[in-house]
Amino acid sequence: MSSSLYGGASGRRVTVRDLASAKERGEKWPMLTAYDAMTARVFDEAGVPVLLVGDSAAMVVYGYDSTLPVTVDELLSLTAAVVRGSSRALVVADLPFGSYQSSPAQALESAARFMKEAGAHAVKLEGGRRVLPQVEALVAAGIPVMAHLGLTPQSVNTLGGYRVQGRGQDGDELLSDAKALQQAGAFAVVLECVPAELAERVTTSLAVPTVGIGAGAGTDAQVLVWQDLMGLTPNPAKFVRKYSDLATEMDRAVRAFASEVSSGAFPTREHAYS
């Protein structure tokens, strides 16, 4: 593989060892969500090394108002599509709410389905010390685990809404959780909506990569929901930078198509068979 994680050409998939090597080199890398084969192909060919089939699909694919309702079966088909649509990216599947919290055995059963049925290369789960037994069980079974701290959307009701986490003394607890997750075998830690100074402190304290979302520029990687990045999401969070205005472009294209159909301008002979 090319020494560069982002955009490097290779005949094989990115692995967790490649991510660890990037951390050692001080190389930053991007991660994006993906939920279908066509967008996965675009992101993969653009050189994005890690694709996350996030439980954010609950909202951006299935139309729920939070991540809580999405099921294992709903995410399995999306994960399989992303794996089929990509050839280089490491595909990480989110374990949805209720699929791992009750016990390590439940976590292993759920994660094994994503690995066997969907072809995922790793899984992600939320939480600190309370999920250490689950992380240890998955890693012992050969399943790479990406951890997730800070604003953990599956716990939004306990957290009191979508709020910045880790301020004040809570930052020390988050750092302690991050170190414990690393010790348990997690290959990376997502830090969501935490103060930038704390995220940088966690990043320098860990040997494994950190992935920031609303956590400042000091993390090893950055992740965004692709619909946010492309401008499809109304009223996105403060941490989102809109790199395109796909909603406006789609609206323009749909209106042009509808107008030409209504007027009879489409289809022309060019678009018909004889």
From TrEMBL:
Mg(2+) binds at residues 55, 94, 126. It catalyses: (6R)-5,10-methylene-5,6,7,8-tetrahydrofolate + 3-methyl-2-oxobutanoate + H2O = 2-dehydropantoate + (6S)-5,6,7,8-tetrahydrofolate. Pathway: Cofactor biosynthesis; (R)-pantothenate biosynthesis; (R)-pantoate from 3-methyl-2-oxobutanoate: step 1/2. It is an enzyme of class 2 (transferase). Its main location: cytoplasm. It is found in: Cytoplasm. Its EC number is 2.1.2.11. Its cofactor is Mg(2+). 3-methyl-2-oxobutanoate binds at residues 55-56, 94, 124. GO terms for cellular component: cytoplasm. The active site is at 192 (proton acceptor). Keywords: Cytoplasm, Magnesium, Metal-binding, Methyltransferase, Pantothenate biosynthesis, Transferase. Binds 1 Mg(2+) ion per subunit. GO terms for biological process: methylation; pantothenate biosynthetic process. InterPro entries: Pantoate_hydroxy_MeTrfase, Pyrv/PenolPyrv_kinase-like_dom, Pyrv_kinase-like_dom_sf. Coiled coil: none annotated. The keyword Metal-binding applies. Belongs to the PanB family. NCBIfam families: panB, PRK00311.1. Homodecamer; pentamer of dimers. PANTHER family: 3-METHYL-2-OXOBUTANOATE HYDROXYMETHYLTRANSFERASE. Catalyzes the reversible reaction in which hydroxymethyl group from 5,10-methylenetetrahydrofolate is transferred onto alpha-ketoisovalerate to form ketopantoate. This is 3-methyl-2-oxobutanoate hydroxymethyltransferase. It comes from Nonomuraea dietziae. The lineage of its organism: Bacteria, Bacillati, Actinomycetota, Actinomycetes, Streptosporangiales.
